[in-house]
Amino acid sequence: MIYAFICKDGGDKTQIRRDVLLEHLRYIESVIDKIVVAGTCPPLSSSDPRQFEGSMLMYRADSPAEARSLFECDPYFKNKIWDSYEMMNFSPVAGDYIGGRTWDIVDGKVMRKDPRAA
User: Fold this and answer.
1) Interatomic CA distance for residues 82 and 62, integer angstroms
2) What's the per-residue H, E or C state across the chain?
3) Staple 43 to which of 30, 53, 95, 102, CB 3.0 to 4.6 Å?
4) What does the pLDDT profile of the chain (118 residues) look like in tens digits?
């Protein structure tokens, strides 16, 4: 199962992100086999002075507890970079990441498929 974490910084956390970056990246490298995708979220507004608004991380894990543990061991979590986060199950169904789409439409019916099997 894939678990998504949508994380929001509270205020401008640029300096503490910089201070903890090396430790954070070393941690990410240590669990890279569990990471589906991870990255920062710059602000939507060009007038927002912050460099980052938050982050998104997706982990492949056997349980919600394992995913939460992976997330909570991250130095950015431990150093309170994110003021809030939301954890959700994630089921990819379309896009480059999965190689297309997970369905075909045949005779007006939706047929599920594995896009990687093509």
Assistant:
1) 24
2) CEEEEEEEECCCCHHHHHHHHHHHHHHHHHCHHHEEEEEEECCCCCCCCCCCCEEEEEEECCCHHHHHHHHHCCHHHHCCCEEEEEEEEECCCEEHHHCEECEEEECCEEEECCHHHC
3) 53
4) 999 999 999 889 999 999 999 999 999 999 999 999 999 999 889 888 888 999 999 999 999 999 999 999 999 999 999 999 999 999 888 887 777 888 888 888 888 876 555 4
Structure tokens at 68: 């939460």
Domain that holds residue 37: 2-117
The token pair at 103 is: 């369905």
CATH code where residue 56 lies: 3.30.70.1060
The Cα–Cα gap between 28 and 45 comes to 28
**Domains in the chain, number:** 1
